[in-house]
Amino acid sequence: MANNQFLFELGIEEMPAKTILKSEQQLVDLVTSYLNDEKITFDDVKAFSTPRRLAVLINGLADKQPDLDLEVKGPAKKIAQDADGNWTKAAEGFVKGQNATVDDIIFKEIKGQEYVYVKKHEVGKSVVEVLNNLDQVIAKMNFSTMMRWDNSNYSFIRPIRWIVALLNDEIVHLEIAGVKADRITYGHRFLGKSIEINQANDYEEQLLKEFVIVDYDKRKQLIKKQIQTLVNEHNWEINFDSALLEEVTNLVEWPTAFAGSFDEKYLKIPSEVLITSMKDHQKFFYVTDKDGSLLPYFISVRNGNDQYLDNVISGNEKVLTARLEDAMFFYEEDQKHDIDFYVNKLSGITFHDKIGSLTEHMQRTSSLCKILAEELGLNEEQITDLTRASQIYKFDLVSEMVNEFAELQGVMGEKYALIFGENETVAKAIKEHYMPISANGALPSSIVGGVLAIADKLDSLLSFFAANLIPSGSNDPYALRRSAQGIVRIIQQFNWHINLNDLIDQYLKQVQENHLLSAELIDQLIENRNLLLQFINERIDKNLNAEHISKDIIQTVINSNQHDILTIIMNAKMLSAHHDDSNFKEIVESLTRVMRIVAKQEIPDVKIDSSLFENESESQLFETFNAIKDAFNVSGSMNNYEYLMELAPIINEYFEENMIMADNEAVKNNRLQQLSQITNLLMTIGDLCNLVIK
Fold first, then answer.
1. Dihedral Cα 541, 547, 549, 551, nearest 10 deg
2. What pTM was computed for the model?
3. Are both 132 and 115 inside the same structural domain?
4. How the protein assembles, per its UniProt entry (predicted)?
5. Is residue 416 in a domain?
6. What are the residue ranges of helices labelled H in 235-298?
7. Is-cis flag, bond preceding 444, omega within 30?
8. Count of domains forming the chain
9. Can you point out the beta strands (E) in 99-205?
């Protein structure tokens, strides 16, 4: 077995920390896919990355591609030979292209027709020949932001400054963006020097001598160890933030952790502000005492050794102090005004230039809150709190603190609301209306917060669809998919039944009566209404898919006459729970037989007349259906499946005893109407014809 090792390193100007691991994986995927396509076998791949480099070390590469014995198909025999059996130009051209002669031709029959073939022995390319084309693979790397830096017009995440390409101890000659591969790499920008790599396998060890820990996992573990040592020395507590740890690991090549401090006077600023200043802005780790209270200390990681560390600590403390001094000023200044001052300023803030101001957005949201409060049966106290919250919930957006720390919107709204005398329920709703802030983010925990969050997100959807600002493809500049997904998740969290169709009707009435949207926008929303419902259904689809509901069941419940999100989800779970039952196939076949007949017929507008029944099976179906219809929970219930089980055998007997398309027109219409009513009830679950049954 071949034991070749191939080292490939791209030396790059400092990459954004948050892109490095994805870039590393992209390099691995592209290179291994290329080798597999080229039939070059290998044992394993080890990836490396730092802010200045992406690299792979591939072990156990084969010496060459396998040789191949091929039979190459040419033209049909009738084209390859003329009537006298002489070879035509088509045949001669074919064999010439295969480096063969007409003497090498054989015939093979395919579907009754003979074709020309030649046998061909293809010698596999050497691994060096294959690796020489690696530049074409690197050209396929794609990043959200690309740079061009010279006349080559080559684009990459950052300018490429050096390339190492070694097969064992030999340079693989290739060129990317005008940079030729060599065996020279570079150590730490300030502590190291250039390095001549002798063997591919020496890469990691030689870089270590020049102050570069090129293995991401080793760098990460060293940082954790250094930080934990500092924490233990000072008897602090730390909760490692995984995202921050990853980012810091990708900011350094030679990490050295250190501790700093700030004045205790800043601890009277809300802890969220302090944490945001340290974690998000300075990439510092904050520390607490045993009770979880924030301490006036931080831990940071420098990209270098411990020389002149006192200067580094002092510099970082000064930067943080300046930021905290600003935060203290903003915090004190913001408290010099009341909520009405901030609410009044919102009329001058544009929600969107096609839609109006933030004040108008809040007014529409407030209208939705009233509708939802009645629909969900909120009590008087909850309605009072919801009404108040909906009137002020965006006020912190015009505060000095949120202007400086935008990520604290809602958080500071809650803090300031309490300071200004609002009750805890209102304050909490102001914070929670942003939830969830990510696909799997935390959801509101309070009823008032949950309703406000739905209303705020729903008005965003309705107003942007009214303005024809509808997401397409991956383009979603206003995060409407996240808003729709948030609505679905919140509804499921609280088990709320909300009929979206009815809600949109009431919304349209409110905005029209109160002039909260222009007539033009209202008309456009009416036109885009079905697109909006479909858009929300796509989020339900995604939600159910994440819960491992099969695609056919999802399509079944999405294609229902339901506009209640929770009911759609409950119906999907009901069908999924019984999908593997032994009698599921039989039940579904019975029910879908009814639905398929109805789909093909024009249903007469008649009332079912029991005097037209010709046998017991008609009476039994009529009576059973009416009993089930009264007990059936159209809002979704696991018990509904029992009613389907009860109905299915009676339907089977009904079809055995009756011809639906009877000669008697009145009897036929009576039967079609009966099947139509059954179908309408089944469609509250979904179009069962979409179910895949085995």
1. 40
2. 0.85
3. no
4. Tetramer of two alpha and two beta subunits.
5. no
6. 242-249, 271-275
7. no
8. 5
9. 105-110, 113-122, 147-148, 155-156, 160-167, 170-171, 175-176, 179-180, 184-186, 194-196
Q: How far apart are CA 50 and CA 255, in angstroms?
A: 11
Position 383 in a domain: yes
Q: Which residues contact 130 (CB under 8 A, 6 or more apart)?
A: 35, 38, 40, 65
| Farthest-apart Cα atoms in the chain, separation | 106
Interacting residues of 565 by C-beta distance below 8 A, sequence separation 6+: 487, 488, 491, 492, 498, 500, 536, 540
Structure tokens that stand for 630 in this block: 């009264």
Contacts of 235 (CB under 8 A, 6+ apart): none
* DSSP state letter for 616: H
pLDDT at 150: 86
**CATH code of the domain in which 390 resides:** 1.10.3210
**Alpha carbon distance 400, 365 (integer Å):** 25
63 DSSP assignment: S
Same domain, 234 and 277: yes
Sheet with strand 105-110: strands edge to edge? 68-76, 113-122, 105-110
Tokens read off for 161? 């400054």
Question: What is the residue whose two structure tokens read 């074409």?
Answer: 136
Q: Angle at which helices 358-376 and 447-466 pack, to 10 degrees?
A: 130
Instruction: Give the tokens for residue 176.
Output: 């990317």
Q: Same domain, yes or no, for 605 and 491?
A: no
Same-domain check for residues 241 and 272 = yes
**Which residue is listed with tokens 């940082």?**
223
Contact 608, 622 (CB under 8 A): yes
Phi-psi region at 393: left, alpha or beta (left = phi > 0; alpha = psi -120 to 50): alpha
Residue 670: HSE in the Cβ half-sphere, 13 Å Cα cutoff? 19
* Residue ranges, the chain, pLDDT below 70: 1, 636
- Residue 636 φ/ψ region, left for φ over 0, alpha for ψ in the -120 to 50 degree band, beta for the rest: left
Considering the domain boundaries, does residue 340 fall inside one?
Answer: no
Cα atoms in the 13 Å half-sphere on the side-chain side of 572: 30
- The pairs formed by 185-190 with CB atoms below 8 angstroms and a separation of 24 or more are 185/9, 185/11, 185/53, 186/11, 186/52, 186/162, 186/210, 187/211, 187/212, 188/212, 188/253, 188/254, 188/303, 188/304, 189/52, 189/253, 190/304
Give the integer Cα–Cα distance in Å for 600 and 197.
Answer: 75
Pairing assessment for the beta strands 356-357 and 350-352 based on DSSP bridges = antiparallel
Q: Give the number of other CB atoms < 10 A from CB of residue 170.
A: 12
Among 168, 159, 158, 155, CA closest to 128: 168
Other CB atoms within a 10 A radius of the CB of residue 94 amount to: 23
- Beta strands per DSSP E along 152-253: 155-156, 160-167, 170-171, 175-176, 179-180, 184-186, 194-196
Q: Distance (Å, rounded) from C-alpha 472 to C-alpha 476?
A: 7
Domain stop point among 148, 173, 207: 207
CB atoms within 10 A of CB 128: 15
Domain of 100 in residue numbering reads as 68-122
Question: In terms of domains, do 622 and 686 share one?
Answer: yes
What whole-number distance in Å separates Cα of residue 94 and Cα of residue 74? 6
